Amino acid sequence: MLRTSVSALALSPLNEGHARALYELVQENRSHLTAYGDYRDLEAISLQALEAQLAEGAGCNLQFGIFLHQELIGRVDLVPVAPPRYGLGYWLAQRWTGKGYATAALKALLEFAGTDLQATDIYAGVTHGNWRSAAVLERAGFLPAEVFETYTRFHRALTGHSVGIH
Q1: Which of 55, 72, 138, 143 is the right S-S partner for 16, CB 3.0 to 4.6 Å?
Q2: What is the distance between the alpha carbons of residues 31 and 152, in angstroms, rounded to a whole number?
Q3: pLDDT tens, the chain, 166 aa long
Q4: pTM score of the predicted model
Q5: Which domains does the chain have, with CATH numbers?
């Protein structure tokens, strides 16, 4: 479990035991998740397929649930594109946005990536118009690196153990 700067907020590796809570959270947030992100595959997945997916990925410890008072409120993943370079994906349930939880979760994940994985670079893509997600990344020290037709790629260099949020 990864602790965050918010006392009741923590990240925990996802496994098949989290499938039902994650499935229900996705279904409750369909319109929110598809407004700016491409989460169609996630919203269309069956509970059984999600259980299998989480069971398969459980050993890598790079898929984390974001928990507030032990309630699942979102997800954050590191994708080992070409270690020590990783991709980043994250989302929160709509009712939990705008409260600083995404920033706190990202800070904890960046600390983990820099310390435990010796990651040197983290990349994230944000769909144009999703200014809230871009603002979270910028608060976490990410900079726009490249603009594509539908999204902007952000980059954060991790130098040693200095991965704090600005």
Answers
A1: 55
A2: 21
A3: 999 999 999 999 999 999 999 999 999 998 888 777 766 677 678 899 999 988 887 556 599 999 999 999 999 999 999 999 999 999 999 999 999 999 999 999 999 999 999 999 999 999 999 999 999 999 999 999 999 999 999 999 997 544 554 4
A4: 0.89
A5: 2-157 (3.40.630.30)
CA contacts within 13 A on the Cβ side of 42: 23
| Cα–Cα distance, 122 to 37 (Å, whole number) | 19
CA distances from 110 to 3, 38, 118 (A): 12, 23, 10
Helix (H) or strand (E) holding 41: helix 40-44
Q: Smallest Cα–Cα separation from 26: which of 75, 60, 66?
A: 75
92, 56 Cβ separation under 8 angstroms: no
Instruction: Output the CA–CA distances (angstroms, integers) from residue 71 to 9, 12, 150, in the order listed.
Output: 9, 11, 33
